[in-house]
Amino acid sequence: MRITTISAVSGSSSVRDFKEAMSSQLAGQGHHLKDFDLTQMEIKSCIGCWGCWVKTPGECLIRDDMARVLEGIIQSDLTLFVAKPVLGYVNGTMKMAMDRTIPLVHPYIMLVQNECHHQKRYLKYPWLGLILEDSGDLDLEDRDIIEHLFQRYALNFKTELKMFRDTSATVMEVVNEINSI
């Protein structure tokens, strides 16, 4: 399986260590991994110009490292977001990168489950997964909100949120769950 991990965790962190151990296990099992550490990349904020839809369809006008991330996402079978929650959601760097994935869909709208959503740009989109750092300050309601928002994100990208875990699980539990997808 081709797996892309996208993380936005600066400094030393249990979720960074978790991701590295998980990646090592997955690579050892023959998975092809591509890792994007957003804290080591130049990623700018979306400016809402819609150039990715009108001027250069499917390609953002902002010239930074996000083009490589988008390519990694669309070429993967599973894209894992790895984040430390801040104020009940993923941190700002991760959210900024998620906002910049809009070139992966068309501006044209269609009805999906009686809701308006963008049409697909590509034939296949990767499944999504989310791994959060378990820092002990996320309650069940926070987790439910984050999971719901990622399910909505997946719906807009014509895919599914296949897993949502935190670092209270063992690395092998997460690896086994990925292998069962």
How would you describe what is shown here?
Helix 1 links the parallel strand 1 and strand 2. The protein has 181 residues and is α/β, with parallel strands linked by helices. The protein is globular, with a radius of gyration of 16 Å. The protein has a five-stranded parallel sheet with strand order 2-1-3-8-9, sandwiched between helices. A two-stranded antiparallel sheet has the order 4-5. The chain has a single domain, classed as Flavodoxin domain (Rossmann fold, 3-Layer(aba) Sandwich). The termini are close together.
Task: Look up the CATH topology.
Answer: Rossmann fold
What is the overall shape?
Answer: globular
How many structural domains are formed by the residues?
1
Strand order of the biggest β-sheet: 2-1-3-8-9
Strand content: 25-35%
- What is the helix fraction of residues, given as a range? 25-40%
Radius of gyration over all CA atoms, rounded: 16 Å
What is the count of DSSP helices, taking H or I runs of 4+ residues?
6
Structural class computed from helices and strand pairing: alpha/beta
Write a brief caption for the model.
The chain has helices spanning 14-28, 51-54, 66-74, 92-99, 140-156, 171-179, and strands at 2-7, 32-37, 78-83, 85-86, 89-90, 105-112, 115-120, 127-132, 161-166.
Topology:
Elements: E1 2-7, H1 14-28, E2 32-37, H2 51-54, H3 66-74, E3 78-83, E4 85-86, E5 89-90, H4 92-99, E6 105-112, E7 115-120, E8 127-132, H5 140-156, E9 161-166, H6 171-179
Parallel strand pairs: 1-2, 1-3, 3-8, 8-9
Antiparallel strand pairs: 4-5, 6-7
Helix pairs in contact: 1-6
